[in-house]
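Hi everyone,

Forwarding the result from last night's run.
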Amino acid sequence: MSVRVSIIGSSDIAFEHLKALNEVGIKVSSVAASRNSISAKQFSEKHNLKYYNNVNQLIKNFNDDGLVIACKSDFLLPVLQKSMQLNTKILIEKPVTNNPKKIHNLLNSKNIMVGFNRRHYQSVSNLKKIIDKNISTKYFGNLQIPENIISTKISKKNHLHELINNGIHNIDLVNYLFGKVNIKNIFYQNFNLSSYSFTLYNSKCHIEVTSISNAIQNTQFDIYTEKFRYQLLPIEKLNIFDKLEIREPTDSFPLRSYKPKLSKSYTEKNFLFKPGFLRQADVFYNFIKNNSRSTPPGIIDAYNSLALLNKLR
């Protein structure tokens, strides 16, 4: 018997969900978005889905095995609250809300999976296995999270807004890899560029985080132990370095230099899907089926990351 879900939202992210869900054997049956949404109507026609002209109508007629909520960030929580009456399995996009207090009453829910898709990257999966295997190892690291902010709107408020909507993926990664962390050494400054710095830590890790507005770089996460350097750059790729190679001076470059020696590298292999989405869809399938192999990120994970970010206010 096939698994059927509905989608609320008709953006590019909704399409990425639809592709991945279809691939793992989940049939998307219907779609809704904002009232009388033209894009949702077009989305339904393009993908042969039942169209509902508002969310309330979809909920009233709901008869599926699960629900995907992939609408605009401001509407995620209101739609989730309406959908709780369905008593069905729900996959909702991050960040769910911008304030952890608003989801505190949902912490005990067992039906909600949050779309922290970076957890499902092959690179992150391999790094997680390494960290879990070496339980006595202490890790030190640097995490750089660039955020794009329109130059005329650079401010502490807008920078935090971007960190909550986008950078929360990376905060969740730290919690996922090392267990729940604390935050300290918070510092903010604004001199043409907006800059946050803070430390995430627990008994297993000490991670220095920097977020600079409009920095010309990818997100980069470097993690160090006594013997290895693990680098996620970008997050889709894991590089493992095991020593420094010395390059002696030459006539063309008369200086001694040092280069990290690459030992292993892991990256995504299937780029027909947005990174992490195919594995995420498979986890959601098993979540719907109540398969014990499925351990999806839930509301508690969104709450923990939001609680850290809200201390930046």
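The mean pLDDT is 95.

Cheers,
N.
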